[in-house]
Amino acid sequence: MIEAAALAPIGLIAGEGRLPVLVAEGLVAAGRRVVAVSLSGCADGSLAKICEEVVPVSMLRPGGWARALRRRGAAEAIMVGRVGKGVQYDVRGILGHLPDWRAARVWLLRTRHDRRSQALLGHLADELAAAGITLIDSTTPVADHLARAGWMTRSRPAAGVLRDAELAWSVLERMNELEVGQAIAVRGRDVLAVEAAEGTDAMIRRAGELARGKGWTLCKGAGPAKDPRFDVPTVGLETIANLRAAGAVCLVLDAGGVILVDRKAVLAAADEAGIAVCGLGPGVGVLRALPEAT
């Protein structure tokens, strides 16, 4: 039984972006066979070179995802990649994707009074489990790309920026408890912006406008209560480019809880942009005492 399970392929439910590719590469490097379903065909084309098969499926038909994976021998899956949050607020868009009864049950019954990401995705995971597919930790195949505790760049911020970062981190911890966004921007100990449904990139642009492109700090993370099976916060090259354009000088991440998509490239880009990047854990209050990340 154990040998059969080890030989069974693992499913990959893939949205947009580079992260599904990194997950697939990590699984293959660990000796796993990978079969993928591409949500509305939006997954990165290079997945086909890594996975045994990539099957396009409708974004809002989770029953179809499960059937496609089961037919290919998978009983477990990892779900990663971008899916626009705006879809959940656009009724015409939802109907355009022809949701199946499982999606309709999640939307109309189980989350009608609570449509936060954690609630939606938790119920979606339950529906997939009922259809024979168990979602598993999405961070395990990309452990080398997780934020690490300590300073991850050569760049270091000034003392005033460190004080901003300490304030932002304490507020972010409270936001995580309330499940309000995953990022916050601070300058001069004043909160510029808090992430909402628009996502981090839009929030960065807003914070840059308010700070007039000068010397502000972004903290990002979802806290220890975050379910690692889905919607784990990420930072990529586009994030660093947006931070640079908006005038940010420091990026503080939840150590072990944020994925750096292509970690080495992201940190190199941050150093080039003069953006100091560090990882923190619960209860850390003084960034000046942080060591370099291992």
Question: What's this model, at a glance?
Answer:
This protein is 37% helix and 19% strand.
Write structural notes for this entry.
Helices cover 37% and strands 19% of the residues. It is α/β, with parallel strands linked by helices. It has two domains: 2-141, Rossmann fold (3-Layer(aba) Sandwich); 146-289, LpxI C-terminal catalytic domain (Cytidine Deaminase, domain 2, 3-Layer(aba) Sandwich), CATH 3.40.140. The chain has a six-stranded mixed β-sheet, sandwiched between helices. Strand 7 (183-187) and strand 8 form a beta hairpin. The two termini are 38 Å apart. Mean pLDDT is 87; it is low at 1-5 and 86-96. This is DUF1009 domain-containing protein. Residues 10-143 form the LpxI N-terminal domain.
Number of contiguous helices:
10
DSSP summary, beta strand count: 13
CATH hierarchy: architecture of the largest domain: 3-Layer(aba) Sandwich
Instruction: Write down the oligomeric state.
Output: single chain
Order of helices and strands: HEHEEHEHHHEEHEEHEEHEEHE
Range of strand content: 15-25%
pLDDT < 50 runs, ≥5 residues = 1-5, 86-96
CATH topology grouping of the largest domain: Cytidine Deaminase, domain 2
Domain LpxI C-terminal: 149-277
Domain LpxI N-terminal: 10-143
Organism: Phycisphaera mikurensis (strain NBRC 102666 / KCTC 22515 / FYK2301M01)
Protein name: DUF1009 domain-containing protein
Topology of this protein?
Elements: H1 2-7, E1 10-14, H2 19-29, E2 34-39, E3 53-57, H3 62-71, E4 76-80, H4 91-96, H5 101-110, H6 117-130, E5 134-135, E6 150-151, H7 159-178, E7 183-187, E8 190-194, H8 200-211, E9 216-220, E10 234-235, H9 237-246, E11 248-254, E12 259-260, H10 263-273, E13 276-280
Parallel strand pairs: 1-2, 1-4, 2-3, 4-5, 9-11, 10-12, 11-13
Antiparallel strand pairs: 6-13, 7-8, 7-9
